[in-house]
Design a protein that fits this description.
With 274 residues, the protein is α/β, with parallel strands linked by helices. 38% of the residues lie in helices and 13% in strands. Strand 4, helix 7 and strand 5 form a beta-alpha-beta unit. Helix 3 packs across helix 4. It comes from Pontibacter diazotrophicus. This is Chemotaxis protein.
Length: 274
């Protein structure tokens, strides 16, 4: 059965498995109607494989060096987390950089999604967490500006996520990457129906509201982000890891997905309902 719209997920920092979004998909599907699920193609972007083998090698070199290191579990945690953030932004203008390899990983999943949508420019929903919010923002920015992997060529509308109806960010740390800039500019809205819903927990020191980042001009975050939504995923900084399993996130995101399905033309939906 052909699919009518798609969901793309992208994970955040730290050690991640290729099946990282299984629990999210399961939790969302428990809330969505059967006809919505039948029309939905769910794809996950897994970019961490580009990092892990190198991070593991560095860690092994450190612990085998003979130099005493206290707090090894915490050190390894920060090595993985901070290395992900630094490596993902490193040498964006070089063809063999991790930055561009990640962009190509995203593009492969976008192309695979389009095949399941019968090569049609159908609506897409993006669900991002943590560092994945910055990475997918970079991808959209580059596609809109013909930079990065798109330098010297023109992506088709679907490849540049021009059909994105929703960008859902959670535990978003974009402010950590842009706060030193003189003018902080967001991506352009891909289309007039696009909405950006940002979920954050005040206890999550890596998750931030986005609308206060910039105001007063067309591509200010205050204009591009539809809503900053505070939720409670826990009572400590560890809440950063809990968004995708928390009902305060799952329930409203399922409603947003359902609304996109309900807005599809009747002749594209599997089953009409009253």
């Amino acid at each position: 059965m052909s699919k009518k719209f798609g969901v793309l997920t992208i994970h955040g920092m730290g050690s991640q498995r290729p099946d990282y979004a299984n629990a999210l998909q399961h939790n969302l599907y428990k809330k969505l109607r059967e006809e919505t699920i039948a029309d939905l193609s769910f794809k996950s972007i897994w970019y961490h494989g580009d990092f892990q083998v190198h991070q593991d090698r560095v860690w092994e070199n450190m612990v085998q060096s003979g130099n005493p290191l206290d707090q090894q579990r915490l050190r390894k945690f920060f090595l993985n987390f901070l290395s992900d953030a630094a490596t993902s932004e490193f040498r964006p203008n070089e063809a063999d950089s991790s930055y561009r390899r990640i962009q190509h990983t995203i593009l492969r999943q976008i192309n695979a999604l389009r095949v399941e949508l019968e090569d049609q420019d159908r609506p897409v929903i993006i669900i991002a967490h943590s560092l994945g919010c910055q990475i997918i923002s970079n991808y959209i920015w580059d596609a809109q500006q013909n930079k990065g992997i798109w330098e010297g060529q023109e992506p088709i509308e679907f490849q540049k996520l021009g059909t994105a109806r929703l960008l859902v960010t959670s535990g978003c740390n974009i402010p950590l990457f842009v706060s030193g800039l003189e003018q902080i500019v967001a991506i352009s809205k891909p289309n007039n129906l696009f909405e950006w819903h940002n979920f954050y927990d005040r206890d999550d020191i890596l998750g931030w509201p986005l609308k206060p980042l910039s105001k007063g001009f067309p591509n200010a975050y205050d204009n591009i982000v539809t809503q900053d939504r505070e939720i409670n995923t826990g009572w400590t900084p560890l809440s950063h890891s809990d968004y995708w399993e928390d009902k305060d996130f799952i329930n409203p995101v399922a409603d947003l997905i359902q609304a996109v399905h309900d807005s599809l033309p009747n002749d594209t939906r599997t089953t009409n309902h009253v």
